[in-house]
Design a protein that fits this description.
The structure holds two protein chains of two kinds. By secondary structure, chain A is α+β, with helices and mostly antiparallel strands. The longest helix of chain A is centred in the middle third of the chain and has 66 residues. Chain A starts with a helix and ends in a 6-residue tail after the last strand. Chain B has one domain: Transcription Regulator spoIIAA. In chain B, 44% of the residues lie in helices and 34% in strands. Chain B has four helices and five strands. In chain B, helix 2 links the parallel strand 3 and strand 4. In chain B, helix 1 packs parallel to helix 2. The chains are: A alpha+beta, B alpha/beta. The interface between A and B is medium-sized, with 28 and 20 residues.
Chain lengths: 460, 110
């Protein structure tokens, strides 16, 4: 008797192996994923029910016949179908397996065995509903399988006649059937668990890529905004040599420069850096630049322009946004420059007559920081060969691989050494040095450079 | 960037450690806003461990002072290293804040 039990168990386990290979393949199909996503379309349901119905029929057979009844794993199909797909799927698969058992396999246990298969699907479906459509988890599913097979055995004992024969059959098959069905449900539950984890990971990955894509798009927009608000050509000035560049960081920093034609013979020149990064910085740059332009036009008093621009910018500044800005009015004929420095890195001027450098500082504060301000204004006289280098902190705060800043000293030395070159050459010389300094590292901030030189050559 | 917040009486103290760049500024902004939401009016930011501050960092501190002064509160700064002091100086922010050499002096100034 014991040998039959073990033989039956081994036979059923082999059966389970085949069933699980097929079940695994089913879990890789589209309709199975759709069912997990609760897309219960007619097509998905039919495919789902037929697949597990087939497994139920296949599980009805084993090589071991005990007194005209066969040990089997027929209930596995409806149990899984009900736990995963709900009551409709569970009952339908149970009916396929149960009717097949009823009509095609005989023996004294025909009625209880057929009923047990239908009930297996029904109970699995009820558990699905009680758990609000979620899979109940590995160990609960195993306990459920043990309970269903025990119920199966009780039905046989209650219904099958004669009772003595039913008792013999049950004694021999109950252990192998409970163990093999439980193992089947256990392994299938592990499949489901892994599948759910896999799907969760895939969802997170997709979300991450979406986020990345959005970020990339945002960076592009910020670039475009910034780029469209920068001058596209240098003004041609009689007796002066002017050149500027802006190299935006990947995440733009909102640097800008501008040339504003004023009355005859006067030009407004500005360089500025907006706080923050990316789209907010680019938008604030566009606003600041437009406000400055509007206020500068027709006003040859830089302190007045900055005072008025600040009031508008401060009223627009949310979340502490501010802009450091240097604004100067160049009088081309008289060779003077009136300027206001609103918290910007002081431009450095090479005064040729002295052979030395001077920083263009005034007492001021970044625009947007205070509601009102009274900017200090200064004036300088320009002479032939003088060079003024305007820059943003992307130049002096470039870092090397030892995390050291490029700094003002290096910049000042470059200005001094290269003051004999043209504006464009000076800009490029400094740019090359800064980029070489942080070679191999990503550029953190926008680099903006502008050089104004009082021409020492005869104008062409 | 590490940040710790403690309290001395009614004064909230935030001690910063590391680089205050665009990324860590967002973290500081969250911290500052949550303190303000919990009705903190008097704030001291200790910069002892900060050797770099970007414009994003300045923006967060400016935003904090604007919010607090609206409700008769204030932000005071302590222990600025020379480079950070220079950034505050260039942007003109030294005119905007009370800056103290030690945290204790900043706290006691309220």
């Amino acid at each position: 008797m014991v040998s039959i039990t073990i033989e039956l168990l081994m036979d059923l386990l082999e059966k389970i192996c085949v069933i699980l290979v097929i079940a695994y393949l089913i879990t890789r199909t589209r309709f199975f994923h759709d069912i997990l996503d609760k897309k219960f379309t007619r097509r998905n349901m039919i495919l789902f029910i037929l697949s597990f119905g087939f497994l139920s029929i296949f599980g009805s057979y084993s090589g071991i016949v005990v007194d005209g009844a066969m040990g089997n794993v027929r209930d596995l199909g409806p149990m899984i179908a009900g736990l995963v797909g709900g009551p409709l799927a569970g009952i339908a698969v149970g009916l396929i397996g149960g009717l097949y058992r009823y009509f095609f396999i005989g023996g004294i246990t025909t009625l209880p065995c057929s009923l047990a298969t239908v009930f297996a699907g029904l109970f699995a479906g009820i558990i699905y509903l009680l758990n609000k459509g979620k899979f109940i988890g590995i160990w609960r599913a195993v306990i459920f399988a043990v309970a269903i097979e025990s119920f199966h055995m009780i039905l046989v004992l209650l219904i099958a006649q004669p009772y003595s024969a039913a008792l013999i059959i049950t004694e021999e098959v109950y252990m192998p059937m409970i163990i093999s069905n439980a193992i089947g449900v256990l392994i299938f539950s592990i499949f489901i668990n892994n599948l759910n984890k896999e799907r969760e990971t895939a969802r997170e990955r997709d979300k991450f890529y979406d986020e990345l894509e959005r970020k990339k798009y945002e960076l592009e927009i910020a670039h475009e905004i910034q780029e469209s608000f920068l001058p596209h050509e240098m003004p041609h000035l009689e007796g002066y040599d002017l050149f500027a560049i802006n190299i935006p960081a990947k995440e733009v920093g909102g640097d800008f420069y501008d040339f504003i034609p004023l009355s005859e013979g006067k030009l407004g020149i500005t360089i500025a850096d907006v706080s923050g990064k990316s789209v907010p910085a680019a938008l604030f740059m566009a606003v600041s630049r437009t406000i400055l332009r509007a206020k500068a036009t027709g006003n040859s008093n830089p302190a007045q322009v900055i005072k008025e621009a600040n009031e508008l910018i401060a009223s627009d500044s949310k979340k502490g946004m501010f802009v450091t800005l240097f604004y100067a009015i160049l009088d081309l004929k008289n060779k003077t420059m009136n300027y206001v420095n609103a918290g910007h890195n002081p431009p450095v001027m090479f005064v040729r007559k002295m052979g030395d450098l001077e920083c263009l500082k005034t007492k001021g504060i970044a625009l947007g920081a205070l509601d009102t301000m009274e900017p200090e204004e200064k004036i300088i006289k320009l002479e032939t060969g003088d060079v003024i280098v305007f820059y943003t902190d992307g130049v002096t705060e470039a870092v090397n691989d030892k995390d050291e800043l490029f700094g003002e000293k290096r910049l000042y030395r470059l200005v001094k050494v290269n003051s004999g070159l043209s504006s464009k050459e000076i800009v490029n010389r400094i740019k090359d040095e800064v980029i070489g300094y942080s070679k191999g590292l990503s550029q953190f901030d926008d680099i903006t450079l502008m050089v104004l030189k009082v021409d020492d050559r005869k104008s062409k | 960037m590490d940040m710790e917040d403690t309290k001395a009486g009614k004064v909230c103290i935030i001690v910063l450690n590391g680089r205050l760049d665009a990324y860590s500024s967002n973290k500081l902004e969250e911290k500052v806003n949550s303190l303000i939401d919990n009705s903190c009016l008097e704030m001291v930011i200790n910069f002892d461990g900060v050797d770099y501050i970007s414009s994003s960092g300045l923006r967060v501190i400016l935003s904090a002072v604007k919010q607090l002064r609206k409700n008769q509160g204030d932000v005071k700064l302590a222990c600025l290293k020379p480079y950070v002091m220079e950034v505050f100086d260039i942007s003109g922010f030294t005119q905007l804040f009370e800056i103290y050499p030690t945290e204790e002096e900043a706290v006691n100034s309220f």
